[in-house]
Amino acid sequence: IPVDPFDLVIFGGTGDLARRKILPGLFRRFIAGQMPANARIIGAARSDMDSAGFRAMVAEAIAEFGGMESPPQAKLDAFLKQIHYVAIDARGEAGWAELQELMKGTDKIEAYYFSVAPALFGDLAERLQQWGMADKQARIVVEKPFGRDLETAQALNATLATYFDERQIYRIDHYLGKETVQNLMAVRFGNMLFEPLWNAQYVDHIQITVAETVGVGGRGEYYDKSGAMRDMVQNHLMQLLCLIAMEPPARFDPNAVRDEKLKVIRALDPVLPHHIIRGQYDADHDDAEGHPNYRDAVGDPRSKTESFIALKTQISNWRWSGTPFYLRTGKRMSARSSEITVVFKETPHSIFAEDAGQHRNVLSIRLQPNEGITLGVTIKEPGPGGMRLIDVPLDMTFSEALGEDAEQVDAYERLIMDVIRGNQTLFMRGDEVEAAWAWTDPIIQGWEARGDVPKFYDSGSDGTTEAFEMMRRDGREWRKVA
Ligand code: BG6
């Protein structure tokens, strides 16, 4: 079903994110029949090119990043007809009259995607207003990083609020657009089975791991100023934590959901220094491809930025008091694997012989790859060997359960369609982002004050030995990254 007619202006339309994610994603939505024939996508960037040049760039981006063997040519041509380009100067006057002319007099939905450095958000917002494009119907989409601490995030929110209402602002965290993340809400709030057990009384602990095999690649300059805490924990892992821990919202509507997420962030305990481990990847000594270590990759032999974090925190509220939440993320780890795991407590009493073994239910929610949800259930080992207990997985791997045809939608394309539909549920509200920084800031300030230096871990491993020790001290184990 097509969404309502729209014009989407992508500032930074020639940039990396636009080429890798936004434009190929829009093409897939076009093929799926979701893009109305009179919708337009308008690239706006500094590069001096015309619409024909931009269309060629879009076609290349689709070929390279579209994830399709060979994109159907007729569809591609039709899609490209809906694409335009304006060379624009975010801080100057060039291009604005042309954009204004293009956007004039349509009664379509107008969305402006700020896929540019955050330093330009304010300039773009101001220019849009000056040129009469920021009316109360317009929507703007902003990318992370949303500030680098509480103060800068507040300033950014204040600037945007000068020109737009909160209901017009769509702050992207692309983890919220991932299929399994939404499924987490369906599983929690669509079944009677889990919610009664979803609390400190029955849950031993929760783990969230987002492991990547890639290093910082060509993003060294940005990354070295951020580190894993700002790049991943403050946003993506925090959002996952919110969804796994929040109270059931009264309705599945944007503010009801976001109110509950905000309460989780506000109830987070401060993290004690010995409950957070920082790591930095060293080279992989068996690595034939010769990937550089972190410091070489960012070109600073003394960099103190972390590419790995493992931490333990707690949520001080009625539901979760006393339940540890362990979070871990890093680059150049052994596998690309994102998983949330709920480890339930042991049964209060075992009726079986001691050597039957005692087991725990483990619910694991896999974000990528092999998206799906698995519940480990204890049963009797089949056969005549007496009462011995084993764990078997109740597997809800989506591709198996729903068939290979189940439509795979990338996070970005889903989120952009939500912008057009005017649905903010999967976008961060300003107060959420600020609360997340308020929790993150003292941790980072602590490192800075102490001159903390991250420990090295080998590329291809699962982080520093200290991260494993932290778990061991608690009598627990990290899940295997696989
Ligand atoms: C981005 C981070 O937000 O998320 C990157 O800036 C990271 O450093 C990426 O690699 C991970 O996203 P995904 O969807 O590949 O897990």
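qc> The first strand starts at residue 6 and ends at 11.
qc> done
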